[in-house]
Amino acid sequence: MTIRTDALPTQEMTINMGPQHPSTHGVLRVILTTDGEVVTRAVPDVGYLHRGLEKIGERVTYAQYMPFTDRLDYLAAMNCNCAWAWTVEKLAKIEVPERAEFLRVIVCELNRISSHLIAFGSYTADMGAFTPFLYAIRERERVNDLFEMLCGSRLTYNYARVGGVSADAPPGFLEKSKEFLDYFEPKLDEYNNLISYNKIFVHRLANVAVIPAEEAVAYGLTGPNLRGSGVPFDLRKDEPYSVYPKFDFKVCVGTGERGTLGDCFDRYMVRINEMRESAKIVRQALAQIPDGPVLAKVPRLFKPPVGEAYFRSECPRGETGIYLISDGSVNPFRLKIRTGSFVTMNIFEKVTRGLMIADVVAVIGSFDIILPEIDR
Amino acid sequence: MEALAISLVNAVPLLGGVPLWAVTLLLMVVVAVVILVFALTFEGVGSLVLRKVAGDIQARIGPNRVGPNGMLQFLADGVKLVLKEDIIPANADRLLFKLAPYFVFVGSFAAFVVVPFGVGLIAADLNIGIYYVMAVTSLVVIGVLLAGWASNNKWALLGGMRAAAQIVSYEIPVGMALIPAVLIAGSLSLQDIVRSQGGLLGIFGWNLFHNPFTFFSFFLYFTAAQAETNQTPFDLPEAESELVSGYNVEYSGIRFGLFFLAEFGDMFIVAALATACFLGGWNVPFFNAGTLPWIWGNLLSLGVFLGKAFTMVLIMMWVRWTLPRLRVDQLMRMSWKYLVPLTFVNLLGVSLWLLVFKGKGIPAMIASLLG
Fold it and tell me: Which of A110, A334, B195, B229 keeps 20 to 30 A from B283, CA to CA?
């Protein structure tokens, strides 16, 4: 947009978007400098939800830290639980029973579905269509029911343990999971018919905030945000962990099908398609799950050997890497967590320059950020 | 109104001693109160229906606590709005802040005056009916702009500016899309427009089926009118997810209530105009309600009119809960690049049609062919 120099003198306006704003997905504060509706600069100001999760890690034992990982990304608590368990197991070289690994994969992928459902729903709500949000909530409710069966809670699960999982699947859980998938997979087509290819929706997202592949890599984007730019990088495939190599699934990437490769629509579509792939993984895991114990023998006063470990896993919002240094005591010596949403905020200022205010909302939604993960 | 007063004075000998102006004034007040009651009832019930429809569409229940099946929810909402503390921000422009809701409410309420509810049910059959509606509903833009400005809140200001740009832009296509009905009736009076769609052709007497251009014009009008009254997918001035709540973000209590009521009032006005100008208004298909006794004829035509208008309102609600929202530049582009030229071409088409076929519509031509 060109601004005439001979026009009436106008001032740029500075607006606080957040920390309390309906579409910043939490307590994110964005300082917008706008010229009318056009954003000249949008600076994210993070830290309103800082709880010192990493420092807390140095004061509690390895097992005690598990509930804190629930609060790392409350929409994908299972993934964070398992990430922590895998890291500690890597540090202490613990062998995990295979059934436990299968259960972990099942809950991780179910949680990925429920997390992507929220991403999908809240994104459409951000774009002004409130109805799909409630459809997404309706489906997520069934995942929550499944997890309630498994571990008794519906949001912060505290399900994984160092060396396995806290409890075996109760009778009926595996069947119910399959029932859910049978119910859920056709719903994805319904969403696509209802909103994904809606003309207004496509026009709002296509060609907005395009991130070319090399830029996405340079800024360290991971997860669906990176794959939206067409980079087929998925830790489940490229750095396989747990029992993921046993499953056949596709890495979904953006294709630029409605606009430029790497725009908001691609990032949105990657999540929709990933839900389908996750469902595929869960189906295979349900079919192949072996019998056996679900928890390895880990001493109550667990002391890993001196050393350090870095483990990264594919969480719904990108790579969650946990770096752990042990000095041989019951507490970690140092803990650092790298999360997808936090790294994504790097590119925020760059891609939002010159967009409209409504597009800033579209960008925040397309990154699917979650604030506890950014602020930790 | 004065004619009615004279006939009333003649009919009721008791009123003989009262001056004519007083009777007229009294009648005016009575009519105004009746319309206000209707408007408020519609707005209340409308808000309930909106929430019930939303509940249905969104696979949830909707309000069901107050009264049987939640039927009295709107009363509870109304009482709550009236009782709530009226907060005026410290740095607001107090006078303008207080004034703004009235502009918005009056703009929407005053349009009810010329809505043709039935054969003889119209508060004032102005000979400039449509023009009047266009004029008074434009008052809304002043109110919205005032609200946005006086709140001294940047989100509200953005909302107000959006609303001003949007309402002004869409005024033109709305007006242009309504003119075909005026051309066919040869009158700006809404009663004349409705009467022109009567006759024995049933629903084919409607302007909607008059010729291809009027058919098109109905949809143009409906789209543009949705935008002019800030309905989804054009609800940018109050875009909740972008501007928090837009121009009314700082309002609370009954001042917010007035904005809220005006929104439903606008919804009804759009539906009523669409009904009157394109869907035959109060005309009962294959039947002339004017031949019935006054009271029955009016009741029947009122029922038909409200039935059509409420159907339109329901369609608006359906659209509202289905579509996402446009971006502000897309909204402007849609108005100036598509709707305005289309309505102009359409108007030209209707005029040429009327000129070439001497004012006859397709159904009338077919009817005359068949004898």
Answer: B229
